[in-house]
Amino acid sequence: MSDGTLTFFATSGTIAVSIVVGLLSIALATLGWWRKGGGVRMALLELLRLVIVAFLLVTLNQPEWVTEVDPQRRPVVAVLWDASRSMETEDVGTEPGVSGGSTLVSRSDAVARRIRPEIWKSLTASVEVVITPFSGEARSAEGGAAPPPATDITSPLIALLERHPTLRAVVLLSDGDWNLGGSPAAAATRFRTRKIPIHTVPVGSAVALPDLDLRSVDAPTIAVAGKGVQVPFSIASSLPHEVVTEVFLRDAEGRVLGRSEVRIPGHSTADGFVEWVPPAPGEVEVVVSLPRQPGELRADNNQRAVRIRVQEESLRVLIVESTPRWEYRYLRNALMRDPGVEVHCLLFHPDLAARGGGPGYRQEFPESAELAEYDVVFLGDVGIAPDQLSSGDADRLAGLVKSQASGLVLIPGFRGHQSTLLDSELGDLYPVVLDEERPRGTGHRIPAALVLTEAGRKSLLTRFHSDSRVNGSIWEQLPGFQWYAPVLRARAGSTVLAVHERAEGSAGRIPLLVTRPYGTGKVLFLATDGVWRWREGVEDRYHYRFWGQVVRWMAYQRKMAAGDTLRLFFTPERPEVGDRITWHTNAMDDGGVPVEGGEVTLRIEAPTGRIDRVRLAEQPGEWGLYSGSSPLREPGTHRITVHCRETGRSLETELTIAAADPERIGAPARPEVLEEIARWTRGSVIGEDRFEEVVSRLHALPAAEPLRRRLQLWSHPIWGAVIIALLGVFWVGRKWSGMI
């Protein structure tokens, strides 16, 4: 240890102030001593005053006592290597985009060659080499199962600074793909302050190698026995050419349940679906897969498994109409032929004294308890009038959608009765803005067609064929319509599935097929009553399928788990670990009357046996709706039990939670992250093929500078105590001299 030196962190301003105040203090002390008659006692007192001022002026210039200490520990060079799951990607050993899987090795294997002790042996004479792996682990709640690993680059770098005070340099071997912790730039800033360079070695290809990746399978959680279910999928291709292949749906034993041809452009994505008819109720695990293609380097991402609960169907549909127009007739016939749908109709006949009658017909709009039994309500050319709906009917129907997760289909007509609904509670449900000055809509002699939007081409509601191109061709050939409702534009939050072929408004093409979520339910608006014309030449092929898909899509959420007096639905539909799920429960008594002021609890049993309980809060005025939320802590199948204390009834179901995997094998490396770290710390970026340069750069490191220890006198407690003590002595001295 060398002798210490006293240094000041003064500025020109603090020096000037110190000189002025010092000279002024000396002048005032001299004048005070002379005016008090001189003498030794007064001289000592004024001298003490000057000493106190001197201490304060020195403090203003921030004195520090600096000593240099030779490091007693050897300098440290840290080799930090990435052990995360993304390092299993096999893309090292050839140029990006070049085929030849036999020459490729994984990123982790490439790193393993560079961390062998003999490579660093030449450095051990002058420095201590520390070889440390890192990855990271996604945070989980206490008691939850361990989530999939993630990559944290920042925390391991900061930990090196804290663990090794004599750290001289870092060698970082990684693909740069981080998805946990703070930005690596924050750690790089601290290394730059300490003048510690980070030499980075990017591993892996920055360009995706030839591959087909089955990115997602958005299968519904429930399906209906005997009814077709569509299993959508999305495929990403990094192959340079177009691929035409089949996607298969298999059961757990490998039997093919369905198949679909898909065309995937080069370096693009493609969506599609496989259709399957579940034969019987039960829990089924299905696997979506596609065969390996020539030139594809890996096939482990070519399949995904999902679980689907198959149950018996019993959908209750209410159709409310004014006059039996053609759309009403064919819609009613199509739904009545569907064995899974029970259809009730209310036909007002405003031009006649009597209402429609016969099998399935009602004479009055149902009260709350009866209305709650319907999964989907079709509202035709009907409004609020003495011979049609009342304001109370509209309120109950809005509450059914908002609180009971039912669906509402709006099909206006040329009579324009729908305009009277806009001032009721149903007005907020409309997914479009209507022109109230033209309630009767617009008609043309020349038919127009519905044109699918981008959202419409991807929607399951508009799917008539699994091949998107064939499906688009079908829509182009469907017979057109001659009348449409007075639509101005779609409302915010709505999804436009189809627009008018020619007509435009202030916001673009007139939206004709629009959906919108409302509360816990869904609303669909069809601005034309000419869909029945789709039967031309093909009978019910498309008309029947379209309305069947609409009814099941709108009732889907309501059917997630349903009993006689309890109904449970939730969002998101396919949750992952880390999501927060929102639960909704409708509680009713044996008579179908909503339970008010009740106590509804949710019991969630995880696969590890952990049990969480959630008390659902009643939503005032929402027809027995109770809601709450809870986090999802672990993957696997959970047993969900809903219990209502007032009725003593319970409902049990199961929910499978997927494990969110932030580490995706096959994703391109991110060398730009490592380049930024090296640039900030004044290190270097060295390619994996030039790894020998790393050791050479470490040999060229300058000798370690002595450590400097700084004792900040101006902020030290003893320094402050001395000043306070001098002030005390000065005060006593003034009393002693008789000045006070």
Structural class: alpha+beta
Question: What is the radius of gyration computed over CA atoms, rounded to a whole number of angstroms?
Answer: 38 Å
* Uncertain stretches of 5 or more adjacent residues: 95-102, 138-148
What is the subunit organization of this protein? Answer: single chain
What is the strand arrangement across the widest sheet?
A: 18-17-19-20-28-27-26-23
- Main beta sheet: strand number and arrangement? 8 strands, mixed
Tally of alpha and pi helices: 14
How much β-strand is present in the residues?
25-35%
What gap, in angstroms, lies between the N and C termini? 51 Å
Number of strands: 37
**Mean pLDDT over the full residue set:** 84
Approximate helicity band: 10-25%
Shape: elongated
What are the main properties of this structure?
eight-stranded antiparallel β-sheet, 740 residues, alpha+beta
How does this structure look, described?
- There is one protein chain.
- The protein has 740 residues and is of the alpha+beta class.
- The chain is built from 14 helices and 37 strands.
- The strands form nine sheets. An eight-stranded mixed sheet has the order 18-17-19-20-28-27-26-23. Strands 29-30-31-34-33-32-35-36 form an eight-stranded antiparallel sheet, with no helix packed on it. Strands 10-16-15-12-13 form a five-stranded mixed sheet, with no helix packed on it.
- Helix 5 packs parallel to helix 12.
- The model is unreliable at 95-102 and 138-148 (pLDDT under 50).
